[in-house]
Amino acid sequence: MSALAENLIALLLIIGGLFALIGSFGLLKLRDSMQRLHAPTKATTVGVGSALVASALDLYWQRGVIGWQEVMVAVFLFMTAPLTALYLSKVNLHFMPDRGKLPATGTTSDWATFDTTLGSGEEPPPDPRPLKTDAR
Distances from the Cα of 128 to the Cαs of 49, 99, 106, in angstroms? Predict the structure, then answer.
C-alpha cells in the first residue's frame, strides 16, 4: 500500500474521530432535547461514516476486494439516523410543556404531528403527558 493511501486512511480516521467527539460533546452540552437531537444524528453519523469509508478503503488496498460489510453498515446508518431523529423530535413535540413556544408554520393546519382525523363519534386520544399534581 502506498504512502498516499495510508495517509488518506489516517486522515479519514482522524476526521471520523473528531466528528464523533464533537457529536458526543454536543450531546452532553446542548440545553434541551431538541438541540441535543442534532448532535448524534449529524456529527456522529458523519464520524462513523468516515471511519467506515476508511475501513473499506483499507480492505480494498490491502486485499483488492470491496468491503461489502462496511458499505451495508453505512447504508443502514445513513437511512435510519434521519428516521430516528424524526420520530424522536415528534415525541419531543408531543411532550413539550408549552406548545406556544413552537414557531409558526404559515399554514392553517399547524404542525402535522398534532393533526388527527377523527371519525364520527370518536373521542380524541388522551393527552400522554403526566398530570401535574400539587406537591404540598
Answer: 36, 14, 26
